[in-house]
Amino acid sequence: VLQIKENEEYTVTFLSGERVITVTVVLGPNFPNEKPRILVSPPLVHPWFRKSSGEIENAPGLLNYTPHSDLGRIVQAIIREFEKFPPALLSDNQTNVTANEPQKVQCSFTSIDHKFREVSPPTACDLSELSIDELNRLNTDSVFLEDFVQETDILRALHNELDKNLVQVQNISKENLSKENYLNNLKTKLNADFAVLKELGEKYTILNLKYEKKSAEFAPEHLQELLQIGSSNAESECEKHVSEFLSQKIDIQTFLTCYTETKKKYAIQKAKEERLGQQLKESGLKMV
Fold first, then answer.
1. Which of 9, 65, 146, 282 has CB atoms 3.0–4.6 Å from 4's, for a disulfide?
2. pLDDT tens string 1-52
3. Keywords on this record (predicted)?
4. pLDDT digit string (tens) for 58-91?
5. What is the pLDDT of residue 198?
């Protein structure tokens, strides 16, 4: 790792196929709360690379970046991607890397303080191939040991699996976002249906009150009570006509007409009352 400006800009150079690729990491003033800018030179043809800005923007580690993300792993994932699948250059005038050009420079980023530390671990992961000095350094230098372990086949496989999982999480996130409009439409429809249901419920309550009122008006007990009141009033009218006739307030013809009509009315209502009472008694309903 080459430090350009402390805590602000660092570069890493490595081989991608037969070309030298330089990755520049720029840390903003709000890092690690905002993700870093990762630039690549020369410009590449790759889904992760944005030609207009010259930056890597669509790498899974950047898409899912948080203040707790390990910047070292993000950069290593980008380097592994370009090493395994060397991208084409945007320009056809790029020169090929010769065998005398420098080999890949290893980098390590600590996730605790998010700063770069320059190390050069051995590329071989077999301890039997290490020199005595390298073994002693592994025993005394924790940073050297950590980066040596990072180059083991097991951890490479784990990193590859992590990259696959990051891509899978990214795809799931995109799928969830693609369904956002559909879910919003369903929510809107549900709210509209709920409003209709509420309106129907209010109408039902009003109609139910009217029904209960009408049911009470036409209940057998209430009808019997009305018939009792009507027959009682008719009987009172008959007595009134008799009283007026005896006191000579009305003549005999008027008395006979009024009395006969009122008596008939009384007899009809009395008969209905008694018949309804008999029906209620037979049906077992309690008379009021």
1. 9
2. 788 888 889 999 988 888 888 999 999 888 888 889 999 988 888 888 888 8
3. Endosome, Protein transport, Transport
4. 888 888 888 888 888 888 889 888 888 888 887 7
5. 94
3-state helix, strand, coil in the chain (%, to 5): 55, 15, 30
Nearest of 40, 44, 39, 23 to residue 94 by alpha carbon: 44
Q: What is the DSSP letter of 224?
A: H
**Planar angle of CA 151, 154, 158, nearest 5 degrees:** 95
Of residues 51 and 93, more confidence is placed in 51
| Token code pair at residue 283 | 């049906």
- Burial call 32-64: b when 16+ CB within 10 Å, e when fewer: beebbbbbbeebbebebbeeeebbbeebbbbbe
Domain map (residue ranges) of the chain: 8-89, 219-286
Residue 105 and residue 14 in contact, taking contact as beta carbons nearer than 8 Å: yes
**Angstrom distance (rounded) from CA 139 to CA 20:** 33
Above 80 in pLDDT, residue 118?
A: no
11 bridge partner residues: 2, 24
Return the exposure string of 233-246: e unless at least 16 CB atoms fall within 10 Å of the residue's CB, then b.
ebbebbeebeeebe
**Which of 213, 196, 6, 239 is CA-nearest to residue 114?**
6
Residue 231 identity: S
Q: Taking the domain 8-89, which CATH number applies? A: 3.10.110.10
| Token output for 32 | 């690690």
